[in-house]
Amino acid sequence: FIALTNSRAFRRLGNYPEPTRLPRISVLVPARNEAKNIQACVESLLNQNYPDFEVVVLDDESTDDTWERLKRLRKKDNRLKIIKGKSLPEGWIGKHWACHQLSQKARGELYLFTDADTRHHPSTLQDAVAAFEAENADFMTALPREEAETFGEKLTIPIMSFGIISFLPVGIAHRSHSPLLSLTVGQFMMIRADTYEEIGGHESVKQDVLDDVSLGRRVKAHRLNWRIVDACNHINCRMYNNIQEVSDGFSKNLFATFGNSVFIYIPVWLWLTAVFIFPVFVIGLAVAGGNVSETCLLLALVTIGFSLILWSITHLRFRYPLYLTLLYPVMVFLWVVMAMRSMVLSLAGQTFWKGRNLDLDTDLIEDIDDEEAEVRDRTV
């Protein structure tokens, strides 16, 4: 049901009326060890057909030649502003500190935080502003086309899109101010400058591993308008190059997505296992001549049928190979393994990313709920 309603509620960039005004946009790009991606990203941003924007890129203490590449790009196009990031202070997570520094240099009415491994269609800013205006948004996130080239990537990356399509009721999430009814994608976050200041910016989430999710939840906690759109025709991103990178990347934050709560996390993954993996074992047992009741067999067949429909919707909409639909039990199993790895590493304090240890805030959901209550009290 959610997947069907999302086919209308989860609108694509490019399907909105032309905007009536074109506010200045500050495009803000944190970059750490992004030498292989930074040129394609920056050139795609500078090639926008939008009339009023700035591109600001901060080199976050890279150990590769990201900074040298940025300097060469700056010589070719003086519209690009580049910043050498300051040393990471105590109490901050690296990317959050980089984004905070970028916000201090921004001069736009709207801020767009985007990752250095993204590539943007020339009409991305124009169509994003059209959506932002039509949706009366204070904060808008967008789901890019997540590229998957190796077989390992194809078995893991699509589940991100599947999760949004199948489990986030976008229409309800847009109308609700509940922080838990949101899912923010850090690859694209457009926010009003005054909204960014009102919610406390990245400084307010400086120790939360999921800065994107936390910012989106803070927007809702302040009873402001949070929106999500489909940008798969406008933005491309290859997050990881193989299944090991996928595992490392999601192990750093998957547990944090559930507020670092074992009591929420374990039941969710047990439920996913029961829905998407266990029915396949039931069918296999029946085929092998095992003692399976007709009721169990029927339930398994119906569950598998609905699962195939859900995964087909995801793969068709986001242009993944349709044959992957038949492999969904393997895909879910791989994510269960990554989920358990994320929990173990997080509880052991061993989550690392780009050479930095990530200090987890284990009270993320509770902190957001407390702030929502405070905002509600002030409103009353």
From TrEMBL:
InterPro entries: Glyco_trans_2-like, Nucleotide-diphossugar_trans. Residues 26-199 form the Glycosyltransferase 2-like domain. It is found in: Cell membrane. Keywords: Cell membrane, Glycosyltransferase, Membrane, Transferase, Transmembrane, Transmembrane helix. GO terms for molecular function: glycosyltransferase activity. GO terms for cellular component: plasma membrane. The keyword Glycoprotein does not apply. The chain crosses the membrane at residues 262-288, 295-314, 326-348. Coiled coil: none annotated. It comes from the Bacteria. This is Glycosyltransferase.
